[in-house]
Amino acid sequence: MIAVTPGRLGSRIRAVSKRALAAPPPDCGGNQGCGKPEENGHAHASAGGVPPPVAHPACGVRDHCGVPTQNPPRHPWWQRAVFYEVYVRSFQDSNGDGIGDLAGVIDRLDYLEWLGVTAIWLTPFYPSPMVDGGYDIADYRGVDPRFGTLETFDRLVAEAHRRSLRVIVDLVPNHTSDQHPWFVDARSSRTARHRDWYLWHDPGPEGAPPNNWISEIGGSSWQLDERTGQYYLHSFAVEQPDLNWRNREVREAMYDVMRFWLDRAVDGFRIDVLWYLVKDELWRHNPVNPYYVPGEDPAHAALVDTYGSDQPEVHEVVAEMREVLDEYEDRVMVGEIYLPVTRLIEYYGWGGREGVHLPFNFHLITQPWDARGLAVTIDEYEGGLPANAWPTWVIGNHDKPRVVSRVGTGQARVATLLLCTLRGTPTVYYGDELGMPNGHVPHALVTDPLALNAADGSQEGRDEYRSPMAWTRAPQGGFTSGSPWIPLPEAPLESVEGQRDDPDSFLGLYRKLLELRRAHEALQVGRYLPIPASGDLLAFRRLAGEEEIVVAANLGHEPVELTVPQEPPLRILLQLVEGSVSDLAHGRLRLAGDDAVIALVQPPGT
User: Fold this and answer.
1) What is the CA radius of gyration of the chain?
2) Distant-in-sequence, close-in-space partners of 23: CB < 8 Å, separation ≥ 6
3) Which of 311, 478, 521, 556 might form a disulfide with 544, Cβ 3.0–4.6 angstroms?
4) CATH superfamily of 175-242+279-312
């Protein structure tokens, strides 16, 4: 789904936050990871200044403080997993109509197993008018004929599980298509059976919308229904009316949808725009954003979304969703949530009730690519996580520009290494393993409402981030035998076929990194400790048992050097740029520009 604007605007909006951020415990003034037990008045705080809220039995912090835990708990599959987002429409076409489908995904499961990912997330494949790429759903329990059938879906899940690949699917609970039977009935009259399943309001003065809310694609969030004389709310496209999550019938209907797919053996859900589900009950106007720059920022950023999302009552809904999931064994709930760290972590749980297993952390996408700013955010995130909460990281998705196009090829390789080595569960966006850049979509082929709604062409669309996958050097990249729904990226992108046997390719890098994750417990589930650094350097340790790994990344283009304090000799496991001569015996690492290194601390006597 369309998400809030990243980068500079996002940081400005924090200054006029919709409500006070969750206050951390009083700062104790200590240093997290110092290795001292919490006794005699000594306490810990994270490098980002946010003290950890819950004690860990060994030292009074959490399990990444550096002191090993006795009998550490078993890690569920999703903590060790590497997720892979399959944008179904662009992954593989099996029948020549130019649209990727579920049978095409089945055909490529062997590739995903070979790549080394362990779970796939399928974007919507449900019946839909496709106004918003399938995120406008007309039937939550079916498969759109463009993508296959329920039988095809069942076969996909079975074939994935046979290869030990988990499968999660998109759940889109904030809104339906305006062609969904619920909404068709709701707009038929003010007394319709499903009327209160959506959000309706009488017109304001002189027939104006009820308040000043702006939809994520621009224009008012309200649409007048001429037949019944009331406005309905749509936080996104006009054709995507918002559901009323204060209505118990809506909740139970959606929970039954979850059970329908869980009964078909899916391993969980990625929940679309989860923080949008509940709106302000008083329909108050959103405040003006004093930092908004017309013509530079998207239209919806003119207001601070204080009342249209992230309301306190949403956490009750999240807890109920989690309870449905917990009716089944070993399932996972991933949430799409674009919020600052201090509000994001509230979605792990609220008021003593469990929340989302993995609330997506998008800060490697939305923040400026700056080592010092990212270091603060990573430490703030690690320092603020509740007890037993597990981090998650992404560097790309179907709503944001490709990482190669955002930061360049060299830094995209650095970002990839960080994705695979930071503590937490990574999610890979299809095509990023090839170094795929944004594509180019002629105006006549644009389908994204974000671009179509901007009559002056000022808003960039997202079709460019969703180009078909390049599998071979054949015409249309082996994606389809027909004409693709949008063009593939232009040369010099190399296909899977062209990169598969090249260990120095982007694909080769992904394979090496995922192999290292599998081989080293510290990289899969080890503790995280920051290493002091400056300038363009970002560095940290990962620790599990006796194993210790050092990761250093140069987010700049000039050479840098890091001395790892008080370490025995290092052994390089992977370095992006060959030729840098490091003094491994004394813990000194030299990195070229656009370089990063993973080094194993050698045990004494080796």
Assistant:
1) 24
2) none
3) 521
4) Oligo-1,6-glucosidase; Domain 2 (3.90.400.10)
Q: What is the pTM of this model?
A: 0.88
Pairing verdict, β 83-86 and 425-429: parallel
Q: What percent of the chain has pLDDT over 90?
A: 77
The region of weakest confidence among 37-46, 117-126, 533-542 is: 37-46
CA atoms of 516 and 573, how far apart (whole Å): 8
- Reply yes or no on whether the pLDDT at 313 is more than 60: yes
Active site residue 97: no
Banded pLDDT at 28 (limits 50, 70, 90): very low
pLDDT in tens, 155-179: 999 999 999 999 999 999 999 999 9
Active-site residue, from 272, 305, 310, 536? 272
CATH code of domain 74-168+255-268+313-515: 3.20.20.80
Identify whether 110 is a catalytic site residue. no
> What does the alpha-carbon distance between residue 31 and residue 51 come to, in Å, rounded to a whole number?
9
- Say which of 110, 327, 558, 583 is annotated catalytic: 327
Place of tokens 């046997």: 501
The overall longest dimension of the chain from CA atoms, in Å, is 83
Domain residue ranges in the chain:
74-168+255-268+313-515, 175-242+279-312
What is the C-alpha separation between 195 and 197, in angstroms, rounded?
5
